[in-house]
């Protein structure tokens, strides 16, 4: 397993990490992902550790805390061998302080997560969404106090816009608070919006990407093909409305290219889609999930080899879309190359 520094921090994380959203799954979304109990989760953790995957990502909102509880049970007795990443800020109830990133909410959320995980500290806490109603100074000062108390080791964000990340980093520098070193983002061959602003920001500011849904919300599994109906057992029947949309022609164009590369090198479509991400700037780790041992071993096969430059170009071309304003004008005018974001 390849290990990479997480942004500008000194923490090294595996190129692949495990998403525990399938642990204890319940409800229309998380129940469709999977519902591994503690025994099944222990086996999946065993396989991950054998392969060098020691970072496990979860969130308090995953099945209303059940994911954290099952993960905690699965790693019991080997806390020092793993890195735990969890997230908070999304609603955990209907009360006025059950969502967001206020001081009250963050302190309670961290204490609750520590109990569910059965640990004294969290290696990486990420804010699951930007809280526009709480001053950023309040958020950062609270995270600073939790780091100083030894309850958090590193902090990051998820699903923030560029200005939200940059303003937070600027205030952290002004007041001497810990900086965000990670941004958990949606990024895939059918979802490359991350590249327009967040990737250049990550390069410039030392914020590493932890990629969620690398298979385009289950669309790049190799089971969806041009001209064929959606497989009867596909979870997309129940979950498509929760995830990022993808136009059919864009999806089929990418799948066609993935099929071509798969035939060339004898790898599966998901393995190629994940390996492509591992070649991208700022990507520290790609989060993979699995409902069973077979799926996990398939995903682990995405490392230990690399796509050729020609294969990468083929996938780049198939997945390319026109950049939105203001990025598009700068990219098309060669005379203004100095204004363009870093090459990606």
Automatic annotation (TrEMBL):
- The species is Mesorhizobium temperatum
Which InterPro entries is this protein grouped with? AKR (IPR020471), AKR_Detox_Biosynth (IPR050523), NAD(P)_OxRdtase_dom_sf (IPR036812), NADP_OxRdtase_dom (IPR023210)
Q: Name one GO molecular function term.
A: oxidoreductase activity
This chain's protein is named Aldo/keto reductase
Which keywords does this Swiss-Prot/TrEMBL entry list? Oxidoreductase
Q: Where is the NADP-dependent oxidoreductase domain?
A: 16-318
Instruction: Give any Pfam family that matches.
Output: Aldo_ket_red
Q: Does the keyword Oxidoreductase apply?
A: yes
Q: Which GO terms describe its cellular component?
A: cytosol
